[in-house]
Amino acid sequence: SNFQVLFIWLMAAAVGGILKLSGLSPP
Q1: Angstrom distance (rounded) from CA 8 to CA 14
Q2: What is the reported pLDDT for 10?
Q3: Which structural domain range is residue 14 located in?
Q4: Per-residue pLDDT, 26
Q5: Is residue 18 within 8 Å of residue 12, measured between CB atoms?
Q6: In whole angstroms, what is the distance from residue 17 CA to residue 3 CA?
Q7: How far apart are CA 10 and CA 27, in angstroms?
Q8: Where are the transmembrane segments (predicted)?
Q9: Digit-coded pLDDT (tens) for 1-27
C-alpha cells in the first residue's frame, strides 16, 4: 500500500519535472 502511494507520488513529481523542462509550466 505504502509502495503504491510512493510510486504515484514519484510519477507525479516526474510529470511536473517534464512539464517544467518543456516550459509548459509557469515559472
Answers
A1: 10
A2: 96
A3: 1-26
A4: 61
A5: no
A6: 21
A7: 21
A8: 6-24
A9: 889 999 999 999 999 888 888 876 566
C-alpha cell at 2: 505504502
pLDDT of residue 12: 95
Which cell goes with 6? Answer: 510512493
Q: Which residue has 513529481 as its cell numbers?
A: 13
Extract the C-alpha cell encoding 3: 509502495
What is the number of domains present in the chain?
1
| Longest CA pairwise span in the chain (Å) | 34
CA atoms in the 13 A half-sphere facing the CB of 14 = 6
SS3 for the chain is CHHHHHHHHHHHHHHHHHHHHHCCCCC
